[in-house]
Amino acid sequence: ATMLPLLLLLLAMAHGLDAIPTLRKPNLTDSLLGGRTTASTFVLEQPRCVFTNLRDDTVIWLVVALPEAVANFSNEVKPGGPGREFQKFPNSTLAYMTLNTTILNYPCDNSRDITVLRVGSETSCAKDASRPTCNGPLPGPGPYQVKFLALDGSEPVAQTEWSNLIFLRKAQPPSSIPLMTSGHSAGMIALTAILSILFAILLAGLVATLLWGSEAGGVSSTFSKPEVVSVRRYNTHHVYDQPAARL
Ligand SMILES: *[C@@H]1O[C@H](CO)[C@@H](O)[C@H](O)[C@H]1NC(C)=O
Ligand SMILES: *[C@@H]1O[C@H](CO)[C@@H](O)[C@H](O)[C@H]1NC(C)=O
Ligand SMILES: *[C@@H]1O[C@H](CO)[C@@H](O)[C@H](O)[C@H]1NC(C)=O
Ligand SMILES: *[C@@H]1O[C@H](CO)[C@@H](O)[C@H](O)[C@H]1NC(C)=O
């Protein structure tokens, strides 16, 4: 009974610590170029002209979280540290931080350059525990929620609101690591298709050979017949005539 007020106080304090400027939430891009979502990636608008009045060396991070991690999310946890590792998401950590870049890369002038971010595009570091801030493929269809967090050194100085829920496509990516069983069946389907095609080609070849053999029989006999005969003769001699030859 005495614990409850204490807990509430701690919660209030935790919220107090989060009292940094909170800016408009990230959006999926409007551009359909390259697809807004795939089975393991999604494309966000860069947070251009969102963070203002911050030092030039402020680093903007993207936080990707499961919705259940959002209510209780702490900005104080170090990017890439325990609780923020891509490789452990979503099993033992509910959020990770990635795509860190200085605020200078998100200028207000977006007349040139690419102004989107593809989340989940980096496959090379997906299993590399030494790169916990990897922008690796998302492990499932979601939903996810994201926000941008500005850190000055290790101190949070501004953030955006959390995005709406982001759902990915359910189609299985061919090279997806976590989807073992579905990857398997896709492989089986491909293999079956290839084998069917090979079998069809073989069959067609066989039929063509037979047809060619019967139609061109007159012409080919000069070449094939002596050969067949000589082979038969050799075999016959070798296998069956040996006892006779010894006699
Ligand atoms: C982002 O979403 C807000 C509403 O949530 C909308 O007003 C705004 O135009 C969107 N921006 C882009 C770039 O889609
Ligand atoms: C919220 O965070 C606190 C401390 O970080 C933790 O003890 C608690 O279990 C969390 N609650 C939920 C619902 O995750
Ligand atoms: C998460 O757990 C599942 C089931 O236990 C396992 O198959 C999967 O490999 C794990 N993923 C990661 C990234 O550890
Ligand atoms: C992003 O953070 C990682 C880990 O802290 C660091 O090694 C890397 O240099 C940073 N990249 C940029 C562009 O700031």
Automatic annotation (TrEMBL):
UniProt signal peptide: 1-19
Residue ranges crossing the lipid bilayer per the database entry: 188-212
InterPro entries listed in its UniProt record: Uroplakin-3 (IPR024831)
Keywords per UniProt: Membrane, Signal, Transmembrane, Transmembrane helix
Single GO cellular component term: membrane
Classification via PANTHER family: UROPLAKIN III, UROPLAKIN-3B-LIKE PROTEIN 1-RELATED
The protein, known as: UPKL2 protein
Lineage of the organism: Eukaryota, Metazoa, Chordata, Craniata, Vertebrata
